[in-house]
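Fresh eyes needed here. Have a critical look at this protein's tokenised backbone.
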Amino acid sequence: MGNSTAPEPSAPIELQVGERQFITTCETLVTGSTFFSSLLSGRWNPVMKDGRYFIDADPNAFEDILRYLRHNALPIFYDNKKGHDHVRYANLLKEAQYFGIERLEKYLENREYVGMVTVERWAEEEYTQLHSTWHPLSLHERSDSEVEYHPTWGVRKVYVCPRGIALHRGNRRACGKLCMARNDGIKYEDEPVLKVVAVKTWVSIRM
């Protein structure tokens, strides 16, 4: 192809990447990319008949490439349930190498994204009596936290009044002299309880 004039830095540029089209500017593309610095240098004419530039690359990964070039922000593909999307990182690394984006390439090769996500987990435990309809957990949740509840059955020792008074059950202090006058001794019974463990996860991302 013959030589052409390099496009103006702020002029819109249309790219055909695989089966998708992207519109950006020359200034965005040449910042940090040796591939585009060469392509748009004006030394040859890579433009198709319709005025677009054809790029033989993965369009989905190129969306992440273009986002990086626009904002100079290193990507983090993290989900609270699945963790890091390592397949997406691997695909992006190939494209970063192809487009000659050194900073992004080193970031992905060194797996620096792992250290940019901090996950904190806390567990709190509450017991719910069977005869209670609801026993609210004493949890204070942050707006950026996720909580998972894990119910299990447990057993606890419950004080039994020597005279069998139901209102005194579980509360030894409620028994008076008449109760204590009984020579049956202090008794406890096993009572099934519903134990709920709440696991809270807090995720913070350092950009």
